[in-house]
């Protein structure tokens, strides 16, 4: 039986996010899939600041250590996610004892300590880090996060510099969603191009692949891959999944959804997918992988955001109780019908 890692051998790595329960051995069937199919792993949550560095003087290493040990033992390429992000940042980092914003100098020191303690601990073991996550808005402007507000735009180059000092051999990435949008892609291009001009070590850009049922167009993501590859850095498709649950507001869905009529055939509170929707999802996934293969010389890794439908963050989001089907293994740990065609295509590419 063809596996993901064998099918894409020589093209790019294929990875998966792993959660804490899986790493702890509480979901052996998911782990079996991960070992069999994937040669790269990323921590879904346990390396985020809120989890790993909840208080100034407290680092919680157990889960991240277990993740790194697991991936090492299974010869997987290891990605650390994520050092500097506006979301899931531990609240203490931005404020002093009176609850006021800390000064620029203090935040830079805290950021440096955060990055260097974590990257230093896994030096030579974690192969690449998502150093900065989601710093650019959809219109290409800077996200006005606390990092940006207190430190200014230099927080990004400082973060990369601190990471490089802690592990000069590790690859350092900028990771973001919605990179298929032209304005956002241009913003990221400018950001990384400026960093490279200044001599900052940026090894790659992660294009998060949180696909919807109908956006982005495959050609839009392809155009972004082409544009960003001209920077000469590695590109990775990260966080790949495809939600088929329509956005709760009909108005919004109708506006953004090319397949709105089709998406209405699917009841988000049901246990399964109608054939028409299933086929559409598989065709769309196949189309994306065909595009990734066309660009395989520019892409070093494609990573799914989860092993199987049952543990994807897409369930229950943004409304509790919804069931989603965003990945290529189902809730019963079976590879979905049609995936073998994607693997055959890759093998014969
Ligand atoms: O583990 C706790 C549990 O103990 C607690 O009872 C429960 C109550 O809320 O929360 C659990 O933690 C949740 C965690 O997922 C594990 O399930 C957090 O609340 C929840 O916020 C967290 O969501 C994660 C989200 O990032 C925010 O960090 C998702 O799992 C994760 O898939 C998602 O991943 C992000 C990427 O890091 C960045 N790009 C977007 C992507 C999707 O949002």
Automatic annotation (TrEMBL):
Q: Which UniProt keywords apply?
A: Carbohydrate metabolism, Glycosidase, Hydrolase, Polysaccharide degradation, Xylan degradation
- Gene3D superfamilies attached to this UniProt entry: Glycosidases
Q: Which reaction does it catalyse?
A: Endohydrolysis of (1->4)-beta-D-xylosidic linkages in xylans
Q: Does DNA damage count among this protein's keywords?
A: no
Q: Any idea where the GH10 domain is?
A: 1-345
Q: Which family does it belong to?
A: Belongs to the glycosyl hydrolase 10 (cellulase F) family.
Protein name (Swiss-Prot/TrEMBL): Beta-xylanase
Please give the organism: Marinilabilia salmonicolor
Q: Lineage of the native species? A: Bacteria, Pseudomonadati, Bacteroidota, Bacteroidia, Marinilabiliales
């Amino acid at each position: 039986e063809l596996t993901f890692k064998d099918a894409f051998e020589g093209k790019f790595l294929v990875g998966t996010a792993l959660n804490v329960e899986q790493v702890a051995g509480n979901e052996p069937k998911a782990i079996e899939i991960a070992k069999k199919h994937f040669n790269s792993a990323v921590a879904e949550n346990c390396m985020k600041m809120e989890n790993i560095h909840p208080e100034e003087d407290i680092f919680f290493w157990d889960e991240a250590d277990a993740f790194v040990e697991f991936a090492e033992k299974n010869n997987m390429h290891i990605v650390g996610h994520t050092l500097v992000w506006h979301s899931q940042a531990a609240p203490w980092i931005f404020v002093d004892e009176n609850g006021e914003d800390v000064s620029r100098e203090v935040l830079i020191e805290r950021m440096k300590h955060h990055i260097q303690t974590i990257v230093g601990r896994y030096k030579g073991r974690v192969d690449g880090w998502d150093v900065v996550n989601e710093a650019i808005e959809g219109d290409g402007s800077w996200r006005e996060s606390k990092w940006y507000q207190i430190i200014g735009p230099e927080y990004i180059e400082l973060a990369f510099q601190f990471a490089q000092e802690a592990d000069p051999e590790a690859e350092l990435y900028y990771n973001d969603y919605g990179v298929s949008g032209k304005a956002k892609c241009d913003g990221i291009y400018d950001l990384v191009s400026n960093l490279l001009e200044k001599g900052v070590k940026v090894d790659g850009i992660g294009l998060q692949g949180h696909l919807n049922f109908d956006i982005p167009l495959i050609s839009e993501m392809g155009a972004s891959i082409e544009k960003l590859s001209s920077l000469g850095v590695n590109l990775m498709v990260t966080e790949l999944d495809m939600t088929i649950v329509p956005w709760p507001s009909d108005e919004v869905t109708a506006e953004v959804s090319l397949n709105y009529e089709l998406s209405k055939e699917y009841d988000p509170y049901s246990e399964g997918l109608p054939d028409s929707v299933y086929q559409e999802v598989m065709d769309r996934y196949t189309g994306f992988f065909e595009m990734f293969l066309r660009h395989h010389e520019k892409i070093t890794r494609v990573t799914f955001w989860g092993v199987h439908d049952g543990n994807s963050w897409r369930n229950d989001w943004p409304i509790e109780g919804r069931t989603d089907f965003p990945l290529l293994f189902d809730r019963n740990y079976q590879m979905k019908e049609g995936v073998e065609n994607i693997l055959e295509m890759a093998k014969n590419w």
